[in-house]
Write a structure and sequence with these properties.
29% helix; alpha/beta; 3-stranded parallel beta sheet
Length: 85
């Protein structure tokens, strides 16, 4: 939140929250942000802070696909991967 708010205070019109996975299994690493209902209040805190600083906020949404780190994510793959399970 602080980083993106500082970007907004610096005069940027928009800040991008980079690589947000659409599901836990689609993360590159277990620390990757996930866009889901469980985290909606945290997202609202971020977007409100950025908006209050006068900027817009967007998210880079993705899914790691066959390079999803099943070991780090601790979730099984639902499709072929580059890793041996």
């Amino acid at each position: 939140v602080d980083f993106h708010t500082e970007v907004a205070h610096g005069g940027a019109a928009m800040t991008t929250v980079a690589y947000c996975a659409i599901s836990p299994g689609g993360r590159v690493h277990r620390d990757t942000i996930v866009l889901d209902r469980d985290r909606a209040k945290q997202w609202q805190r971020l977007t409100s802070a950025v908006h209050d600083a006068g900027a817009l906020v967007c998210a880079q949404i993705g899914h790691a696909g066959l390079v999803a780190n099943t070991l780090s994510n601790r979730t099984p793959s639902l499709a072929p991967t580059t890793r041996v399970s």
